Amino acid sequence: MLRAAQLDPGWLIGADVQQLPASAHWGADLFVLEADESDSSHLAITAQAAILTNIDLDHLDEHGSLEGITASFDAMLAATDGPLVVCVDDPAAAALAASHDAITYGTSPAATVRATDVRLSNGAADFVVRWGGVAQADAASSNIAVHLPLRGMHNVRNFLAAFAMAQALGVAPATAAAAISNFAGVHRRFQVRATHNDATFVDDYAHLPAEIAAVLTAARDESDTWRRVVAVFQPNRFHRMASMSDDYRDAFVAADVVVITEIYASGTEPIAGVTGELVVDAIRRAHPGARVEWVPQRDQLIDFVAREVGPGDLCISMGCGDIESLPDEVVARREELSRGR
Hints:
Helices cover 30% and strands 21% of the residues. The chain is an alpha/beta fold and 341 residues long. The protein has a six-stranded mixed sheet, sandwiched between helices. Helix 2 (66-78) packs parallel to helix 3 (91-100) and helix 9 (298-308) crosses helix 10. The longest helix has 16 residues, at 153-168. The chain is globular and about 60 Å long. The N and C termini lie far apart (50 Å). The relative contact order is 0.11.
């Protein structure tokens, strides 16, 4: 949006955006930084504007509790000398928005910048953005139609966040809306990696319960005709699973088949009794009728998924570890099976 407005922003972001030359760039006007609460480094940034998308239970080794995480974001907003944009659809974030006089966004009627008439179809979202009280907003013309070529309500909200901040920084609404109409997305965000014998294989970075639920919900828009959605999840970090495994119990309800594999350590030390099977047990307790498979070993996982996924199925592998390469490995195994090996 900033580039479409003929600005020269710099950026440092945690993923590869397909239409940017790199994940980091030094510009001349503004600098866009993706901050991280995992090690409280977001509190070391002197920002002139900030977006808060949501507050979720994570990184308890750093913050101790949800209250600790919330307090860290409260401090971040208080230290920001400029526009604040906060999601009002997230209860914890909304509470901070009220105390910091932030511009709010979401689907709630209370949002300053709001999406209405949302239609999710053909892997995209079409909706109307309505706003008021934001710099550049004209009371006589405070709505605009948007086509977002990304799946899911979570991406509608992400657009609203960027749109609200762009307006606050002086970008015209029409410029911001037009800039997103051909957005090609981000690496490892519902990324179609392969199709094989009428089965589709998607890779996604989702690794927290709300993220997984959002991705699986996004897989079922009104035009989708998948026979089944097969979700494959690689849990991440032993201490996270030790404290949060039960929080995954409802994350997979939109999947027809759930496959859980072993924990990816991400530099953490093993904890006795803590395995990916804790997630399996949590799902089975909450949803006794769900089909949940525990396949801890990688070679077994590749073979199981290769045989399980059939024509018309969508297979979504999720996690922030080496699960990223699973679609390629599964397709290679399916090729072997087709040759009788």
